[in-house]
Structures are given as structure tokens and as C-alpha cells.
Amino acid sequence: MRTKREQIIFQAFHDQICRSEFSSGLTLFFGLHGNSSIRYQSAEYSMPAGALLVVNPFELYQVNCSENAEMIAMQIPENLLQLASWSRQNVCFCYASSQNEKQEYQTIRVLFATIFQDFFQNPEQNASGIVTNVLKLVDLLTEHFLISDVPKSNTKREETMRRMKRIMDHIHSNWNEDISLRELAAREFLSEGYLSRFLKQNLDMTYSQYVMGLRLEHAEKQLRSTDHSITQIAYDCGFHNASAFIEHFRQKHGLTPRQYRQHATQKAAADPSGEETLLQDGVTYLLQFAVPPDPQRELPHETRYITVDENVQPRRLRHTWKTLLNAGYAKHLLTAAIQQQIIKIQQEIGFRYLRFHGMLDQELHIYQGMENGQVKCCFTYFDMVIDFLLEQGLRPFLEFSFIPRELAKAQTSIFETGSITAACADCTAFGALVEAILRHAICRYGWDEVSQWKFSTFQINYVFFDCMTMDEYLELYDCVYHAVKAVDTRLQFGGPGAMSSVVWDPRGMRVFLQYATAHDCLPDFLTVQSYPHESSSADANFMSYTLSQQSIPSVLSKDTNFVKTFLYDLNGICREFELPDMDIFIEEWNSTLWQRDLSSDTCYKSVWLTKNICENMDAVSAFGYWTISDLMDERANFDSMYHGGYGLFTYNGVPKSGYEALRLLGQLGNCCIASGDGWYFTQSEREWQLILYNYTHYDNIYRYRYRRLEHPEDAYSVFESGKIVRFQVTFPALRRGLYQIEQQEITRTSGSSFDLWLAAGAPPSPDRAFLQYLAEHASAHRTLTTEQVDTALRLETTLQPLEVRLFRIRKMNFT
What we know:
Elements: E1 2-5, E2 8-17, E3 26-33, E4 36-40, E5 43-47, E6 52-55, E7 61-76, H1 78-83, E8 91-92, E9 95-96, H2 103-121, H3 127-144, E10 146-148, H4 154-173, H5 181-187, H6 192-203, H7 207-225, H8 230-236, H9 242-253, H10 257-270, H11 274-287, E11 301-307, E12 315-316, E13 324-329, H12 336-348, E14 353-357, E15 367-371, E16 374-377, H13 380-391, E17 395-400, H14 427-445, H15 447-450, E18 454-457, H16 461-464, H17 470-487, E19 492-499, H18 500-504, H19 509-518, E20 525-530, H20 542-546, H21 562-576, E21 583-589, H22 603-615, E22 622-625, H23 657-665, E23 671-676, E24 679-684, E25 687-693, H24 700-704, E26 724-731, E27 737-746, H25 753-759, H26 768-777, E28 781-789, E29 793-799, E30 804-811
Parallel strand pairs: 11-26, 13-14, 14-17, 17-18, 18-19, 19-20, 20-21, 21-22
Antiparallel strand pairs: 1-2, 2-7, 3-6, 3-7, 4-5, 4-7, 6-9, 8-10, 12-23, 15-16, 23-24, 24-25, 25-30, 26-29, 27-28, 27-30
């Protein structure tokens, strides 16, 4: 990971094979974990946790960071060194092992960690503080660790290092090929003998020793991370035969490659989460040295002046964010707790469709096997679920999942629910099951009703979770599509439910659309899922890592407009396949990947929902928030009512700030007058609505270190500090009259049950009286005022970070 900002570069090392490098500035190394080392000035410096090493400008070094070690480097560029009056003739020596607690070394650790913290958390606001601490660090090195100010030939040294860099780049790009010393010499226009002496002087080893070491390091990594044969690894790593590889490997390690692999496998089995723990604990270790940010520090202020044009043509709104809501699993819809939450949602907001997983899971007992070639079904619980939804004014968005145990190729489940996520062994029987359900539904509820339902099946994502192959998924999708259309071609069927990473992956959405086009099974509407993660490569181990519920290896996206970016790219793919008018349903979306992210419980969720709904209003046919409630046993092991679950409600029915945000958004009018950065203005009959929000994103440390927080008090520590925004809004069209102005706000003291719970000491299992108190006081604070207006209505209000405010404006005299 290399990140550049304010001209400082941080680089993290873990399980890396690194070439010899140099920098034109000072490079400071900080050991975080394990036993890495740095070869520098013909010596080997061990870098355990807490160790420090400073490398001078234009000095060659080589990092050796094994699989059990982690280290971070900070490069201070020339311009900051000059600002600190660092002479180009200066040479310093600073090395401290973890045991060396001399005060100057400890001060370096504190400055290093504080610069890192400020660099990643709030770089723009901390820019001056970062520079100040860098200058302090350079001054400290100058005062206590300078060993020479004797002039040296910097120009000659720089030329030497640049030549070394060219040579190292070539070696590391071609390390597994036959690279002769003669070839390298010809590239640099040198004699073979001169280059041999040059490399020996700068690497402290011969050319052949360096290349051999590089090949063996690559081989070690393959032995640990792949199941390739010894012979294949030998050829992959540039050895002419396996015997030569085994002999060189034994000379270095005292073990054969096979013995080394067995040892590594046994070690990984004994500690399967070791690497995950290492990567998380390294940053934790570093940050313990940092000076904590000042909680009293004044945030920057910004004023936004808004004048709403009275001549603008209003845009009619469909409020497609109210098209779809998710409710976990089918069996949950039979519980009183979930039913009460749905009733409340429908009374206060009103959605059109409800989607859920697990309709074909064992608990609903729909599939009863095959008899004489006919599928046998029991619809008792199915009918109870559908009856309840229709009573609440909701239509089903039926997902035909998961695979009944009797029809699955394997009894694989990646969820604690026990739902079978393996491929289907008998697609014919599965298709017959789908047809039987649909024919029963039409018989019971009538064609006019069922024709308005939506249908889908398994998501394509399970291919990328290694639950099935792409061919197996496409066969299942094809089967369900044609089963639905066999009942009636007018029934609306969607797919493939691709997560954003699968949409972007060339093996994902495009492969699906190619198949569906070629096999005449294009969905009637496209279904996708929007979770803000960085790339598909981050999701390779998504499910296996989430089982621990301690951390997520994926990186949260830095894109504050992730949903908009995702939809832009998705529409581009639709145009590629000549589907520009294809309906798009975001069947699932959330601000987080993970059911243990405490930000789901904070005011962040309310401002995230407000921002993304307002900025993408009606951009697709549905935004299906996942999910109504934390009462979902997909990941059931939680020990507190606020534990970072996906839900709009806690498992015991207390609404969170995200629910309040949807309730406020539900009060917007049916015409959009204007919108902008942090605001959205609508109109309905005899009323105008203005919703304001002050969004603040996750800080970069949390984005890269997405882990479970130990203390709920830290829930707000994972965001950038943001800014205080003052809105001054003028409505020229609203004049001459008496207006009633209603305000509702979501802040840390209003509309956030999590913050109320936190203020009460965060009891893990509150009694019924306290739950009732939370539920009663979780609503957004509401105030009413009146204002006499002559020329134009003006509103002025200030929002702290992560706050939402709704104004409802009504004219009192309509003459």
C-alpha cells in the first residue's frame, strides 16, 4: 500500500519480496509485528515491534518482511527536509530495537505514529499539524543522531543510486528468466567485470547470490500460498530442474521444499486467523504511540448560500426508494417481533414490495419431495407469510432460495441459518417446485394480484463465494427463468443480484448478460446489490473471514458517491449490451458490508441514507434497504442490543437513526424544486419541504482496517471529523404571508436511540422499562414556529457533522 498526500509517502510491508531501493528523502522504518529485517550499509538490522531505523537520502536498503511480520515506512521528501534546514551533506544514524527506551527514540515513535494518524484520518484539516510534526522529527534527528556533516559527492552518489534502481527494476521484472550479467552490463554500457564489482560493492553480495535469494523467496511464498507441485514451482521460479531447486532450498533453510510446506500448513491450521490478526494488530500497535486528537479542537466552518429559483420547472418524483424493503428470511416473517416492526414501517412510511431470503429453506416446509414424477408441496407457512404481507399493503418480491437439502449437490452453508448455498443437483425438480409455488399462488390470490409480484432466484455472488461454479449458477438461473415463464410469460422475473464487485468483475455481470442473451433468458429487470467495498479482489475471502465477526478484509470505498459511481458504470454495461432502457432494481443496499459495524447504529446511517437517496432520487426502479431488523440469525452471535447489525430496528424492536431518516424522507413532497450539496427541496399541495444533511465519510484508517470495535463509545471515532456547515436559504417564491415552519432533526441528542443508550451507560441487555423509554424517545426532535414574510422567506440553520434536519413549510393564510 503506497499512498501519497502532502508529499509524504507511507508504505506498509507484509509478506513481501522487496528489491533494493533508495529514496531522495529520509526514510523512517517502524517495526509493527514479527521479525522483519532491513539490509542497510552492509549490515542486517532486525525490526521487531517498536524498532526504528532511519535510512539517509540516496542510501540503498533492502527490506525482508516474512509472512509473520509487518512494518511500515515513512518517506520525508526533499522539500520538507529543506524546510527543516536539513543539509544535503548531513548523515545520521538512528537505530533502536524494541528494548531501547531512550527518550529520543520514544519521541520519534510518538511523532511517527501521530503523523500517520493525522495523515490518514483528516489530512486536509491536519495538514499544518502534519508538517509541524515532520519538522519536529527532522530537528530531533539533526540534534541527536547526526554523525557527519563532512561534504560528500552527492551528485556521484545520486547517479550511482539511479543506476542501481535501473538494474534492480530489470532484475525484479525478470527474476525467473535467464538474465546474464553480460546482458545487464550491455544494458548499462558497462563491462561485465565493472558491473560485477559495482553490484558486489552496493549489494554486499554477488549478482548470482542476489538472484538466487530472490528466486528462493518467491518459491517460499508459492509453497505457503499455493498447492502447485514442487516441480512446477521450480520452473516458475527460474530453476532449470527440481533437483537444483531442492538443493538450493535445503542449503538456505535446512529443509526440503516439501518439509517447508508441511511445516507452514501445520502452522496455518493451528492459527487460521493469524494473518488477519496480524494485519489488524499492527496498526493498533502503532496508534498506541500517537497523541490522541484533541476532542475540544474547533472544527472548520463552511457557509452555503442557497437561493431557490422560483422559475424552475418542478420534476415529478416517484420515490422509488420506497419500492422495496428487505426483511431477512422467510421464517422471520412468522415472528411477532418482525411483524410488529413491519406494521410500524407501513403505518409511518409505506413501502410497496417486501423481499426476503429462504423461502425454500427447511423451516417453511414447502418442498416435500417427488412422487411419481410430481413435486409434493406444503403451503401452510408460505400462505401465512403472503397473507400477512398483503394485509399490510405489501406485495411479495419472491426470491426462489435457497436449495432444499434433498435437491442440493452438497450440504454447504455459509450462514448460521443453515440455508443451503450449494449448487442444485436436480434443476428439473427445482423448476417443477417453482412452477408449483406459482400455480398455487395464482389459485389462492388470483392472477390480477400475482401478476403484480416480482420474482428472482439465487444471486450470482455465490459463484464468487466458491459455493458453485459459474456454469452451475447459469444452469440454475436458466431453469428458474423458464419455470416462471412456463406458468405465464407476463410474470416479471429479475436477476442476477450481482454485488458491485461482481458487476465490475469481467467474469461477472458481462458473462451473465452474454449467456442470458444467447440463451433467450434475459431478465425483465436487472437486480444488483450495492455495498461500498473497493474491488472484487477484496472479496475473495469475504465469507470465510466474516465468520469470525471480528474483522473484514475488504476495504471500504473511499468514494463518497459510491452509489452514483456504481450506477453510472452499471448503465454503461447495459448500453454495451444494447439494454439502455432495462429496469434496474437495487435489491439490496447498505452503508456497510458487515453485521458488526457499529456505524450502522449511529447517526452516520441516517445521514448516509439521506445523502444517497436525495442524490440518486429515482435513478433506478428500487432501492431495497437490507434489512428491517437486527433480529436475523444469519450471524446470530451478538452480545449487545447495539452491535452493528444491518437493521433499521434493534433485535428487540427499538428504531435506530436510519429508520428516523427514512421517516423524514417519507415526508418529502412529490415534486422536486431544486437540490444541491447537502440539501433537497420538494413541494406538495400547500406545503414545501427542505431536507438538509452534513455527511462525513469514514476515515482512511478505518477504511483499511475494517474491524469490530471493542467499545461502543468508540463508534464515532471511525469518521473524519468533518466540518460545521451553516445553511442560509432564500425562497423568493415564498412571500407575503404567514408561514408555519416545522423542524425535525436527527442528531446525537435527538432521533438516535443508540446515543440515548450510550448516554445511559450502554447496558447490554436493558430491561423492558428502558426499552420502552428508548422507543418513546428515539424520534427526531420536532419544533413548530411561525414567521411573517414580506419579500422572501429566509431560513438559517447550522448542522454539525452527521446531522440531518427537515423543514416543512406551510402557508397559513391562502388568500
